[in-house]
């Protein structure tokens, strides 16, 4: 009503007060935005450092006689969908492949057959596509311990 009848008074009392508040609010919002940007940049830096410091472990585990399986762990840090990767390995290498939980309650990929080198090449290629080139991939051979026979009495 005031703005229709007395537009000069309305501008004097209402518009000026709103603009000064909005400038203060604008400055506060800009400060908050800068803080958020700094926080997000630090978070991204921490995540990148975590990715670069972690490593992927490929274990070649000997089963019975000449049979082997390959267990791949440490992929969850790199935001790789482990189930999709398991399916890809299964079709690419024409072998059985599954996702299992390890002792630390993290997902591992278990592949039937001695395919450690091929898996390493494929994982390195996958990480290179994501822009991560300095990731350590470590291969470990785990041999089955032979049972010692007890001496006959």
TrEMBL record:
Location, primary (coarse class): cytoplasm
Pfam families: SUI1
GO molecular function: mRNA binding; translation initiation factor activity
GO BP: formation of translation preinitiation complex; nuclear-transcribed mRNA catabolic process, nonsense-mediated decay; ribosome disassembly; translation reinitiation
Localization, UniProt: Cytoplasm
SUI1 domain: residues covered: 56-127
Keyword annotations from UniProtKB, A to Z: Cytoplasm, Ribonucleoprotein, Ribosomal protein
CDD domains xref list: DENR_C
Signal peptide (from-to): none
Superkingdom of source: Eukaryota
Gene Ontology CC terms, in alphabetical order: cytoplasm; ribonucleoprotein complex; ribosome
SUPFAM superfamilies recorded: eIF1-like
NCBIfam families: DRP1
PANTHER family per record: DENSITY-REGULATED PROTEIN, DENSITY-REGULATED PROTEIN HOMOLOG
Domain description: The SUI1 domain may be involved in RNA binding.
Subunit note: Interacts with the 40S ribosomal subunit.
Family: Belongs to the DENR family.
Name listed for the protein in its UniProt record: Translation machinery-associated protein 22
Organism: Ascoidea rubescens DSM 1968
């Amino acid at each position: 009503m005031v703005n229709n009848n007395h537009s000069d008074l309305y501008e004097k009392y209402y518009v000026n007060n709103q603009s000064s508040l909005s400038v203060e609010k604008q400055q506060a919002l800009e400060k908050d935005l800068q803080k958020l940007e700094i926080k997000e940049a630090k978070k991204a830096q921490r995540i990148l450092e975590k990715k670069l410091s972690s490593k992927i472990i490929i274990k070649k585990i000997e089963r019975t006689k000449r049979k082997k399986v390959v267990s791949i762990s440490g992929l969850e840090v790199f935001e790789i969908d482990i189930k999709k990767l398991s399916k890809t390995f299964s079709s690419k290498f024409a072998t059985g492949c599954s996702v299992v939980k390890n002792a630390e309650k993290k997902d591992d990929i278990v592949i039937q057959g001695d395919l450690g080198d091929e898996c390493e090449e494929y994982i390195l290629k996958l990480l290179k596509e994501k822009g991560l080139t300095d990731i350590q991939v470590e291969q470990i051979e785990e041999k089955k311990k032979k049972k010692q026979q007890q001496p006959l009495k």
